[in-house]
Input
Amino acid sequence: MQKTITEQNLRALIDLLVKKGTRVVGPRRAGSITLYEPLASGGELILGELPRRSAKEAFFPLCENILSFEKTTEGVKVADVDPSQFPETVIVGARPCDAAAPGILDAVFSWDYKDKFYLERRRKTTIIGLACTSCDDACFCTSVGLSPADPRGSDLFLTPLEGGGYACEAVTEKGEKLLAEFPQLFTDAEAAKALPQAEPAGEKLDLARIKSWLDGNFENPLWAEISERCAGCGACAFVCPACHCFDIVDEGGETKGCRRKSWDACGFGKFTNHASGHNPRDAQPKRYRNRIMHKFKYYDDKFGKTLCTGCGRCIRACPVGIDIAAVLEEISKK
Amino acid sequence: MSRIGVFVCHCGENISRTVDVERVAQAAARLPGVAYATDYKYMCSDPGQSLLKKAIAEHNLDGVVVAACSPRMHEKTFRKAAEATGLNPFVCEMANIREHCSWVHEDREEATAKAIDIVKLMAARVRRNRRLAAITVPVTKRALVIGGGIAGIQAALDIADAGHEVVLVEREPSIGGHMAQLSETFPTLDCSQCIMTPKMVDVANHPKITLHTYSEIEEVGGYIGNFQVTVRKKARSVDMAKCTGCGVCMAKCPQKKIPNAFDKDMGTRPAIYVPFPQAVPNTPVIDRENCTYFKSGKCGVCAKVCGPCAVDYTQQDELVTEQIGAIVVATGFDLYSIEPKPADSPIQGYGEFGYGTIPDVIDGMTFERLASASGPTGGKILRPSDGKEPKEVVFIQCVGSRAREKGISYCSKICCMYTAKHTMLYKHKVHDGQAYVFFMDARTPGKNYDEFWRRAIEEEEAVYIRGMVSRLYQKGDKVVVMGSDISVGIQVEIEADLVVLATAVQARKGADTLAQKLGISYDKYNFYSEAHAKLKPVECATAGIYLAGACQGPKDIPDTVSQASAAAAKVMTLFAKDQLEREPIVARVNERFCAACFACKKVCPYGAVEEKEIRDRQGNLIRVVASVNPGVCGGCGTCQATCPSKSVELDGYTDEQVMAMIEAL
Amino acid sequence: MHAAHKNHDFEPKIAAFVCTWCTYAGADLAGTSRMQYPPNVRVLKFPCTGRIDPVFILRAFQKGADGVLVSGCHPGDCHYMAGNFHARRRFAAFRQLLDFVGVDLNRLQFSWVSAAEGGKWVEVVTGLTERVRSMGPMREFKELELEEQWSGKVDTPELQEAYEAIS
Amino acid sequence: MIDLAKKIEAPATIDITAYAGATEAIRAEAAKLLTEGAVAAVIGYIPGRRNGTAIPAIVTSPEKAQELIFSPACVNNLALYLTRAKKEVKGKGRLAVVAKGCDMRALAGLMGESQLKREDVVIIGVACAGVYGSGADRDAPLAEKNIARKCRECRVHAPEGADVVAGSLPPLPEFSPVEAEELARLEAMTPAARWAFWKEHFSRCIRCMACRSLCPFCYCEQCICDRNRPQAVEATPRPAGNMAWHIVRAMHLAGRCAGCAECERACPMDIPLNLLNRKMARELKELYGHEAGLEPKEKGPLNEYREDDDQSFIK
Amino acid sequence: MKNILNYSYYPGCSLHASAQEYEASTRGLFKALKIGLHEVPDWFCCGATPAHNVDELLSLALCAKNLSLAENVAGDLAVACAACFSRLKTTQHRLIDNDAKRQQVEKAIDGPVPLGKKVKHLLEILARDYGLERLQSAVQKPLAGLKVACYYGCLLTRPPEVPELDDCEAPTIMEEVLKATGAEPVSWSHRMECCGANFTLSRPGVVLKLSGDILASAKAAGADCIMVACPLCHGNLDIRQGGIEQASGTRFDLPVFYITQLLALACGVSTERLGLESMIVSPMPLLREKSLL
Output
């Protein structure tokens, strides 16, 4: 029998979780936009909008301290951050393109070096995904093999139903646990008809074909052609659910400070700048090439996955209108 | 610097009375980068300095903080001491815990805490200090003097006598300037030409002086010690090398009716002329505007009569470039003229004085020419309108000067004295004449000046009327002077035969253009600005350029000569060394990051920022960046605060040093 | 003989950015004249107010200053002729910016103090110190310094303590 | 009888058919320049993949020039591509650029800052009635609802000083000046409320540097916030560093920013950055009568001075 | 027919009393030139010289109120009398950068002071607004052969910063206007000297001397007559001329015209409207001699 939950109960679920001390992260109004942020109550949850930034920051924060140091007469005192302090988190209302991302990122964060910051947060996080019933002309999840109703990556997956409420599908044990913990909020019901899922306009892309072109075209005039308009900002990377480059800097004073890890972007001119002053990716086309190569070739070579969920955020955010879907389409035609 | 020594001074009890110096030293020892800290009774004393030197050697210190008095007091002392041990002097800094702490606070706890903080700030700073090397700039020991009046002549002779080469540039055909026009000089009444002409001849004969007369400055490039100056030698139409100065050409020139400017247009001269008989050089020049040959192509008399064939009608202006180490600007002044106000001038004319339409209203310089034995009247005082000897002469002071409503607020400084002189000269020549002087104040500061003025009144019977003149008008052959005598409060009317106006001393016409070529600043009256009113009265803010005489402001002859000698002394000081050494607190451009917006150049008060082209080995231009000339940079650091990317840094006050101090706040 | 020393709950930290030729010398004069003023001020010497970057003021507030003084030569007295004129424009603009982002301009003072004005130095420093003392600590930047993005926040007891300590 | 009142009433929407004329003129001019070899490339706009979008394009052939367009979606300030930040583009040779009135002001500013020589660029000015605001409805006619904020207060619809001007202006509606109103609203607040306003906005900043990257005046070879010795502005996207970054940026643009509002448009976090720039521009106009970018000026307001400048704030 | 220019008009007390010929000729001239003059309703005394000697606030308030009345009439404010002109201009000048004083005055007159209202003397209107060329072409009967001493008096150009009419000490505006009529201005010395003004009543001796000098100077320069722009000067030079002749034993016989009288005459305004008959020194013989009647 399928479980369903009303919108009211979904909000009540958030309230209950918050009360219990769980950090609940979901789409929330932040100024004039919507972002995934901790919710103080269920009332704050915004449904029906794709937040500007992806949900990846729940595991991979925009900026976090990784240690702090203090110089004293006795020497340098270093204090590590204790990952056990990371809060139990539930992400509510993650769209399939966001929910799918951690599953992709797990590979890189647990490969030769186990990133305990990421992994600990990941372990403590439950994702409640939500199927999309609408999309815009930047959405292209279907082109990269996902769909607006794909439960991949979600622990619990909600599908909006005609007449309100959501069908709930426990995808993982974490999801089942949640269902079990708050049985009063979920109803066993004859499934009402699911609302029709969104239909992004793009054709499904032949990712293998794209990859094989990339394999042979490290040098190609196309890179310059696409990216000569690129202004070199990091907007695309920072809104992307799958981009995961980061920088580590020491900040603070001479006697006291923190080592911090924060998002970085391969579009930045300084991204690969060496201390010597030499920069192997010294021009924007090389940097843009890296962005595409990393997503559709290198990551695939290494982990067998594509580093893109088709959320379309980079298309919306790019101030010079670079459209990754159009780029992929062009490559796939080569 | 990571091995800093901190030396806390007691200053007898001056510091230790309110600051617990031992505690300061103990706290200092715990500061990052500090390897050694101690305190001592008198750090500046010999034993104190020895202690410092010894500690530097023993503890292998690479930076020093002396916590004592103000750096304005002893920074040099301690830097020298540090330098004696082999340290770079610029890694030694002072923490001011006396003037800024012990002397201004009473509470021992608070003062001690503050002293520790001050030491902390300075230690943080010294950690980022860089070793700076003194900057040297080569010096071309060749001076340019612009202007051949008494100021320029004096400066040129002084510098040349010291053994340095001098290039003297004069706009007119002869040197001599205004002083050559004067009859006698106050307060001694000695003959101006008698004291002037020998100096002019000295200039002409001096082996170290290159004289360019009838020449103007075309272009100035470079900087202190290394100027390149282009001089335009105007076509004289007479070959200087061939001319013997015999004067036959002038005698034979058929065009003789040209008003002689040297005599204030009262006499005449030929078209080929020397301005006055004692001219230096004594080579005539053809006034092409008035020469019949140049106007119509006919005549050519002078060429025909010239024995050595020196007349050359085809001569062209010539540009000469001189390498110069220092420049003395001595361009002098112009006299305010009573004319309707020029359209673009902020200065109002004197309509009430008839705008100079009354022929017997003349200015002081015209009177000088009348009184001069070599003048158009042979020294007789004869009025211009009818050549009669004036029996009643009215002198009016402050015409143009001290007249805010007319646009000039300053005092011309010399008029009180020369007007007094004029009354005397007049009385000496016209025994039964009466001189009246309208004056606001009589300003006679100067050796024997007031005595001189009193003599004009008491012995030469000049009548001084305190008050200004409201109107002059012609009445028959008299000039009626309507004025007021404010000391008795009555209106005065004098029917005079001649009126002499003591007109204001103004900056030379075109002074601003020359200033722009030189890159020096000038005030709203176009007088050149000295770098500091008290302490640098002969220096321009632009290094290597000095001022002499009235181009800087109204001045009499003694002041002018003194300033000229002072400027010469400054040039000699500069020339005393082969290289110019200066404190290395100068800005440097990080060429790699300079985006060439030249904001630094726009704000630099010294014009020290240049545009530098970076080329590859083939000579192709890669990019242009800013570049600071360390010889010219004054070290204010305005460029750095202005540069958005901080690609220009002031050595000694880098952002790194400042940020470290802010960090340590 | 001495004025009764008062204890205050809050002693502000005042950073003074001064030029070496006028205001630093003026402060020296206050010292040689044995004038008395509150010890809260820390002087940072610059060749000229023209060298003082607005970033320094911002940084000083970030690094814990409760009040900032910028002081140099009177107009026309600049050792470098025009540095203070440039500074005057720069700070006229910068203070408007700070005001616009919500910094209380009572914490920021600009003055001309000449080498002869030891008395004025004392007045300016005393005035600013007392004004800032009455305003209380400059919390804005300090609080901001401790804030984290929600995703990077770890609510460790130490941080919590530090956070509470500032209020 | 004709109803006069009705006739003179300003239209509520902008008739964008006028933009088609501009498109034609731009294509013709670009093709001419490229055919003649007068320029190596024309920087203009071509349609984006998505309906109603336009993206910058660097066009090098007369054929490709036929793809150029002008529409309300042509939001970018193409002056960006003439700065040293875009060396690849600048390296192509002499360039032509399509510029709206607002973009012209940036070009003038760049010329004043020695970044661009007038003779090195052909300016194809375009009469512009307005462009879409960010996130605006691109299907609806251009009106109060979807026009960019800066366009509501635009005073440079017709570009001045261009080599050619493409298109003509349709009748312009009167829009309420939202930026001026917002500025007034903020100024009326207490400092504490303003602080709260900006803190909230800046805390969203992720330091993607889109504001910097899109700004024609952020052409520094090395941004002060990328420097770490010393570190004047923290590089990490924490609230403290964000606040410092935006204050420093506003200060660095003061007297230079010509108001193209690209920073604000580019910001993926919708931070109203142009408010800061407008505020500074207004203060500098009030203080020194300076307006950025109307014509190339040798000195900006913060690198010149007058002896009698206001100093009422100096005690 | 439409006027070319329109002004609000402040005649001042004299023009309604001793200087009625100034008023009549002004109106006649301006009508002929098609310049509209619209008298300020309810205008009153400007305070003249006495007021500011007694109470500055009073003197400023009087003019301020008149200015504010003038705001009701469109156009710059035309003023004929040199003294009224001076007072009105002085008031604006005094108040423009003195906020404290302005507030005081505003309180006194219970309203704002129109500091922007342009106050113009007739000369300025004729020479600048109307223009010398146009004036010249409006002349129907050139005053050829008439030698005129243009007399400025004290207030038209002084103090330098207030009237902004012409050069303070060497003005030419009257001569320029006069030349347009075809008459010949003489060059003379006492154009700007004081006529004695108000002393005419309290210390007539002073006036006899000062005005006598002016007349003598004009005569010496070869003038046939004098032209003035101020009712008070006119009084001293015209009414007192007989007395001066008596005291000095010199016969001058110099008619004293207002600017508008000569201009109107040249522009063909009927001589009946020029008030020539009210001049003490009759101009008739002169005008007949020069065939100007």
